[in-house]
Design goal:
heterodimer; A: Helix Hairpins; HSP40/DNAj peptide-binding domain; four-stranded mixed sheet; three-stranded mixed sheet; 8 helices; 11 strands; elongated; B: about 100 residues; flat; MerR-like DNA binding protein (chain B); DNA-bd_dom_put_sf (chain B)
């Protein structure tokens, strides 16, 4: 591991034993795999624990300060004159083995479940399909098949891809939690898709068929004559698909729009309409 | 006449839980006595555990191993993590309207 133990704990090289302990406790709480289900947390937790194991032991710490990353490869008393043969029996023992025996002496422990967010646009959630994703903070990559019509908050389980188990215990599972990004035009409510349908005053008054872009492609919507703003047109089955049942519906809400600037001719026609029409929407 | 099938509730003995968790059965009973895992006692005094006990025991071991927590603290952490899970699910369902 190339990272520096002091950097891992975020402390200076002249940190006191108290500083080391404080930094370790704080980071261990933050990255413990049961407290933090982020897939990168487990590796961070292990790095932090490893750094603490070394730096909290004065003898190991001074060897680490002296030899850096190679400190374990240097024999324990290489810097001391060879003593009696009695001490030589200890030289073959790997310090890490000894420590891991002390710290992990409780047998196999299954790994924790992990959670990662899978962000999709409304269109991607509608279509589904293959996605390659890289988990941030790790070098893990997955090819995931997203079923068409996933909803916000749904979880996709990748069995055995969570935290590693200790010993020969099984790994946890990795859950991808679907988050659907807010869309400028579409609003989701369950499997129903809502959108606003801007129409001209004459389309709304006379009735017309207008093209509407939906996540599934362009569809023709018939606006019946005399549709005011707020009227909702339902397109059955044009909402989010449902792999196990009926698809949602699409609701297009009519919104009558007027031109911000009128040409002279448009103004004349509107003025004529105003003079002729007896329509009074404010009378109840 | 309708036929009813007797359904045995899915519960595990301390020995089964222990075998699935890689622990000693006595340690499983001890965790039950400390209230870290749920259990029921039948008339003969035997302890029975729901299947979800196995992942809870794994969590107990990870918390003990990784944070050096004592059993009282582990019990508190388990309760708090459960409450956080419920609250996060609530927040998620309220955000459903994207």
């Amino acid at each position: 591991m190339a990272t520096d133990f002091y950097d891992t704990l975020g402390i200076a090289r002249d940190a006191t034993a108290d500083d080391i302990q404080r930094a370790y406790r704080r980071l261990a709480r933050r990255y413990h795999p049961d407290v933090n289900s982020d897939p990168g947390a487990e590796d961070r937790f292990k790095e932090v624990s490893q750094a603490y194991e070394v730096l909290s032991d004065p003898a190991q710490r001074s060897r680490y300060d002296q030899f850096g990353a190679d400190f374990r490869r240097v024999a324990v008393d290489a810097d001391r004159p060879r003593g009696t043969s009695a001490t030589q029996g200890f030289q073959g023992i790997d310090i890490e083995d000894l420590l891991s025996g002390l710290f992990r002496g409780r047998g196999p422990i299954p790994g924790a479940d992990q959670e990662a967010v899978l962000e999709l646009t409304v269109e991607e959630a509608y279509r589904g399909g293959h996605r390659r994703l890289t988990l941030p903070g790790t070098d893990r990559q997955y090819d995931v098949t997203v079923p068409p019509g996933v909803l916000d908050g749904q979880r996709i389980r990748l069995a055995g891809e969570g935290g590693r188990g200790a010993g020969d215990a099984p790994a946890g599972d990795l859950y991808l939690v679907v988050r659907i990004r807010p869309h400028p035009r579409y609003r989701l409510s369950g499997r129903d898709i809502h959108l606003t349908l801007p129409v001209t005053p004459w389309e709304a008054a006379l009735g017309s068929t207008v093209p509407v872009t939906t996540p599934g492609g362009e569809v023709k919507v018939r606006v019946t004559a005399g549709s005011s703003s707020g009227r909702r047109l339902r397109l059955r089955g044009e909402g989010m698909p449902n792999p196990r049942g009926t698809a949602g519906d699409l609701y297009a809400e009519v919104r009558v729009m007027v031109p911000k600037h009128l040409t002279r001719r448009e103004r004349e026609l509107f003025e004529e309409l105003a003079a002729v029409s007896e329509f009074t929407p404010r009378r109840t | 006449m309708a036929a009813y099938q007797l359904v045995r509730p899915v519960v595990l003995s301390a020995e089964t839980v222990a075998a699935r968790s890689g622990l000693h059965p006595d340690l499983v009973r001890r965790y039950a006595a400390l209230g870290l895992v749920e259990s029921t006692t039948d008339r003969s005094g035997r302890l029975w555990f729901p299947p979800a006990t196995v992942p809870v025991l794994a969590r107990v071991q990870r918390l003990r191993d990784g944070l050096a927590l004592n059993y009282a603290a582990i019990g508190l952490v388990l309760d708090l993590l459960d409450r956080i899970r419920v609250l996060e699910a609530q927040v998620r369902s309220q955000q459903r309207w994207t």
